[in-house]
Amino acid sequence: MSKEAMRAEAERLMKEAMARKITVKQGDTRIETKCGKCGAPNRVNAKPGESRVEFTCKECGAKQKTL
Ligand SMILES: [Zn+2]
Asked: What is the pLDDT of residue 22?
């Protein structure tokens, strides 16, 4: 994947996440994030108001926190 494509993908995910936040109801929030190691998109469940959540990448298994 080229750098441009990765940037476009990141922007798309961010827009999606923002759109989802507006429509999200009470309860767990689903955060779409990108693995810092391999760049794979990951979906993470977060408690309301929680923005940094620990997750394990589904592709490479790297443990990290969402940005
Ligand atoms: Zn990964």
From this structure: 63
